[in-house]
Design brief:
This protein is α+β, with helices and mostly antiparallel strands. The chain is about 40% helix and about 15% strand.
């Protein structure tokens, strides 16, 4: 066996260095293969790994022929709770930063399961949004997008726009100042709609100016174990346009990781320039809360995932 050949060893232990959860195959009895130099495998085998994200994104075992079974084994290894000390330290820095920026903070709990980052490309062909220290989180760009989407829907309701025109409205709101007024008049806005559009542009920014609101990553307030969920598409030939749907089509179960119900996340919004603009900052927080409660975050929101309360 050459130095770069796949190396076999027991699966990664949990963060305490012990066995996996009750009812699961002990990690020491699982034979994983890693296409890594034997020296790297030796380190990984002997040093307890307390970062589920590192296991999921960097140390997924060689899948071999039995792809689905290996995926389940890998997800069991990656669903363990993150290192509590690492989470406390990261959350403490987040709190210090938001306080220094005079941000408004609030917490919400998952109403059911929540799946951040499912569309990310990984060796398992399914993704998950792990923070670099191994706990689930929602990046600031996604947090801002949720708030802006709710604000866009609110403005569209004032303009009585159909859903097909939302993209046009979105692009119009981002235009430079010299082009915006003329472009926005096409929607025949009321004075109230004009004021709301101006507020949205001030909060979220345009192509020639950054928005006043600063959105932070959403962080879990405690360490917890993830859950393994399953989706089971059955009518692949139908969705591929090959034949009508039928019960004779084979189901294709796909397992993935999810944040459980009732897990608390902290959110924060600050104001970018000078003294905080209290009214606009509060408006941004309201849009974010409404979006998290009624639009959801992450993947599969149409199936009930990703909503907060």
């Amino acid at each position: 066996m050459g130095p770069n050949a796949p190396q076999k060893h027991g699966g990664p232990p949990n963060r305490s260095g012990g066995q996996q959860g009750k009812g699961e195959t002990p990690a020491s009895s699982q034979e994983f293969e890693y296409p890594l130099p034997k020296e790297v495998v030796a380190v990984f085998k002997n040093v307890p790994v307390s970062n589920p994200g590192l296991i999921f994104e960097r140390f997924i075992p060689y899948l071999g022929a039995d792809k689905e079974n290996r995926r389940k084994q890998a997800l069991r290894a990656a669903k363990t709770a993150p290192n509590l000390d690492a989470l406390k330290a990261a959350y403490g820095r987040w709190q210090a930063l938001t306080e220094a920026c005079k941000a408004k903070t609030f917490t919400l709990k998952t109403d059911w399961r929540f799946i951040p980052g499912l569309g990310r490309k990984t060796a398992l062909e399914i993704g998950f949004g792990f923070h670099r220290y191994g706990f689930p989180y929602l990046p600031a760009s996604s947090v801002k997008g949720i708030a802006r989407t709710w604000a866009l829907f609110e403005l569209a309701a004032l303009l009585a726009l159909d859903e097909e025109k939302l993209n046009d409205l979105d692009q119009t709101l981002s235009k430079e100042d010299k082009e915006f007024d003329k472009a926005f008049e096409r929607f025949k806005p009321s004075p109230e709609a004009k004021d709301l559009a101006k507020t949205i542009r001030l909060v979220f920014g345009t192509l020639d100016q950054a928005g006043g609101a600063v959105f932070f990553d959403a962080m879990p307030t405690s360490a917890f174990q993830l859950e393994i969920d399953i989706m089971n598409p059955q009518f692949a030939p139908y969705y591929q346009g090959k034949e009508p749907p039928g019960d004779w089509h084979n189901p294709n179960p796909i397992t993935f990781l999810a944040v459980p119900k009732d897990k608390e996340f902290a959110f924060a919004v600050a104001w970018r320039r000078g003294a905080p603009h209290a009214e606009l900052l509060e408006r941004a927080c309201v849009w974010l809360k409404n979006g998290l409660r009624d639009l959801g975050a992450g993947a599969k929101t149409s199936a009930g995932y990703g909503f907060f309360r």
